[in-house]
Amino acid sequence: MNPKKAWAVAAKEVRQIARDPFSLLMLLGLPAFIFALYGFALNFDVRHVALGVQDRDQSPQSRELLATFVNSTYFDLVRSYPAGSDLDAASRRGEVRAVLVIPEGYGRDLQAGRTGRVQMVLDGTDSQMATTILGYADALVQDLNLGALRRTLLQTGRAAEPPVDFRPRVYFNPELRSTQFLVPGLAGFLLMLTAVLSTAMSIVREKERGTMEQLRVAPLRTLELILGKTAPYLLLSLLVTVILLVAARLLFGVAVRGSYLDLFLATLLYLVGALAWGLLISTVVDSQALAFQVGLLTSLLPAVLLSGFVFQIRVMPEPLQVITHVVPARYYLVVMRGIVLKGAGLAPYWDQLAWLAGFALLTITAASLRLARKEH
Fold first, then answer.
1. Is residue 51 classed as helix, strand or coil in its secondary structure?
2. pLDDT digits (tens, 9 = 90+) for 136-184
3. Integer Cα distance of 178 and 43 in angstroms
4. Is the domain of 269 the same as that of 327?
5. 360 and 235 assigned to the same domain
6. Do 216 and 79 sit in the same domain of this protein?
7. Which helix (H) or strand (E) holds 121?
8. What separation in angstroms does the CA of 155 have from each of 36, 152, 159, 209?
9. For 234-283, what is the HEC assignment?
10. Nearest CA to 346 among 266, 267, 270, 268?
11. How many CB atoms lie within 10 A of CB 69?
12. Domain count, the chain
C-alpha cells in the first residue's frame, strides 16, 4: 500500500466536502441539534404529577396526608372534587393523572388505633408513568405510617426506633436523573447515523457524477481507496464526538468521569465499524436517495430500538434479543456509559470491545471484497 495515494484520495475528499458547506453543516450541526432536541424531550423523570383530591373526611389527619403528597414535589394539587363527583370522567378529560380519595371516618379510625383506608384512582394509559406514580405514593404512605408508628411507641413509652434501618445509597446517579442514562445513548446512535450516512453518500455521489469509474482505472489499491475515502469522515465523526460531549456537559451536566483516552479508543473502534458499514452500503446501491434510506434503516432504527438505548434488552422477546447481538450500538453504549457515568476503564468491557472489533473487521472485509470485485 502506498500512503501517498491514500492521502491524495483523502485530500480530494476534503476538497469536495469544503465545496459543499451545506453537507458539512449537516454532518456537524445536525447531530448537535438532534442531540439537544432529544436530550430535552426524552425524559423519563416523573415530577409535578397533576393530583386531584376527594377529601370526604375533612379532618386534620386527612389534611396531613394530602400535605405529605403535595410537599414531596412529586405531586401538584390541581383539583378538589366534592363527594359524588365522577372521577372516571375527570380522568378521561385529562384534568388529573391521579386522584387521592379519603373516605369519611379516616381521621377517626386513626385516632382509635384502627387502620385508615384511602384510595388512589390512577390514569393507567401510560403504564410506565403509572408504575412510577404508584411507587411514589407507596413510599410517601410508608413514611407516613412510620411516623405514626413512632408517635404511638413514644406514647406507650416503648422504643421508637424501627426494627430495620433501611438507608439506600445510589452510586453514579444519586438523583436518579434519566438524562444521565439517556444522553450517552443519544451520542451513540447519532455517531452511528453520522458515520454510516457520510461514507455511504460519499461513494454513491461518485457513482452519480460518473467519477467512480475514474477512481477504478486509477492506479489505486482497494485498501488505498477505502482509507482515502473514510479518513476525512472519521475525523469529522471524532469532531462530532467532541461537540456532543461538550453539549452533554453544558446542557445536561453529564461529565466524563473516566479516561478520555479510553473513551477515544472505544469510540474510534465503534466509528471504524460504522464507516465500513456505510462503505458496504455504497457498494450495493447506486443512488444517494436509496443510500440515505438504507443507511437510515440499518443504522438509526437498530441503534434506537435494539441497542438498549430506550428499551431494556432483557425484557424483549427472545428472537429480538438474538438480533440485538449484531447491533454494534448495543456494545458501544455499555462501554460508553461505563466510562462516562461510572468512571470505569476498558478492562471490564473487553467482551464488548471484542464484538465491536469483530464487527469492524467483518464489515471492512466485506466492503473491500465488494469494491475489489467491481474493479475487475
1. strand
2. 888 888 888 877 777 766 666 665 565 666 677 778 887 778 888 888 8
3. 6
4. yes
5. yes
6. no
7. strand 119-122
8. 55, 5, 10, 89
9. HHHHHHHHHHHHHHHHHHHCCCCCCCHHHHHHHHHHHHHHHHHHHHHHHC
10. 266
11. 23
12. 2
> Residue 364: CB partners within 8 Å, gap ≥ 6?
226, 272, 276, 279
Amino acid, res. 288: Q
CA distance 21 to 41: 29
**Are 248 and 306 members of one domain?**
yes
**Total residue length of the chain:** 376
Phi, psi of 320 (to 5 degrees): -70, -35
**260 occurs within a structural domain:** yes
Q: Could you give the CA distance from residue 321 to residue 326 in angstroms, rounded to a whole number?
A: 10
Q: Which three cell numbers stand for residue 153?
A: 411507641
Strand, helix or coil for residue 8: helix
State the Cα–Cα distance between residues 336 and 346, nearest whole angstrom. Answer: 10
Q: Which residues contact 269 (CB under 8 A, 6 or more apart)?
A: 353, 356, 357, 360
The residue written with cell numbers 438505548 in the block is 309
Residue 259 grid cell: 479516561
Give 320-374 pLDDT, tens digit per residue.
999 999 999 999 999 999 999 999 989 999 999 999 999 999 999 998 888 776 5
